[in-house]
């Protein structure tokens, strides 16, 4: 089949192309589909959720404490911690204890609010899932 024939065949459907592309959105808004909140993608990632959760239950944690608790590498932890720091969800203080460098993290007020909102959203997802 030539290119022109393929093109005609492609658009010969009874449904306009733009309607087909939006079909998935239409299914989501149907009466049977529950309205679910959009999750905070920054927190939703496993390591970042672990960081904010660990900090929510501790006043502060060192880099090494977080690395041990989350069972992750230096590089992985530093990349994810930096993203949370850029979003101002956590604060980072670097200092020396004697001659040993230390990095301490704390959950900020913004981070605590973001985590609370995320947990509320997850609870809503769980309620809806259990109803079905």
Summarize the structure.
This protein has 132 residues and is an alpha+beta fold.
Helicity, as a percent range: 55-70%
Count helical runs.
Answer: 8
Describe the main β-sheet briefly: 3 strands, antiparallel
Order of helices and strands: HHHHHEHHEEH
Roughly what is the average pLDDT, rounded to an integer? 82
Unreliable residue stretches: 3-27
What Rg is obtained from the alpha carbons, in whole angstroms?
23 Å
CATH architecture of the domain at 41-131: Orthogonal Bundle
Highest CATH level, the class of the domain at 41-131 = Mainly Alpha
Q: State the secondary-structure class.
A: alpha+beta
Q: Identify the strand order in the major beta sheet.
A: 1-3-2
Strand content: 5-15%
Q: What gross morphology would you assign?
A: elongated
Number of strands: 3
CATH topology of the domain at 41-131: Arc Repressor Mutant, subunit A
Could you give the distance between the termini? Answer: 46 Å
CATH superfamily of the domain at 41-131: Winged helix-like DNA-binding domain superfamily/Winged helix DNA-binding domain
């Amino acid at each position: 089949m030539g290119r022109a024939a393929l093109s005609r065949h492609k658009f010969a459907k009874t449904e306009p192309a733009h309607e087909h592309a939006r079909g998935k959105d239409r299914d989501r808004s149907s009466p049977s589909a529950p309205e679910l909140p959009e999750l905070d993608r920054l927190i939703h990632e496993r390591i970042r959720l672990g960081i904010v959760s660990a900090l929510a239950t501790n006043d502060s944690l060192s880099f090494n404490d977080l690395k041990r608790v989350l069972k992750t590498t230096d590089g992985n932890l530093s990349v994810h911690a930096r993203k949370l720091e850029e979003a101002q969800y956590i604060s980072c203080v670097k200092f020396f204890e004697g001659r040993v460098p230390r990095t301490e993290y704390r959950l900020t007020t913004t981070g605590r609010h973001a985590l609370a909102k995320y947990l509320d959203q997850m609870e809503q997802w769980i309620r809806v899932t259990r109803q079905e």
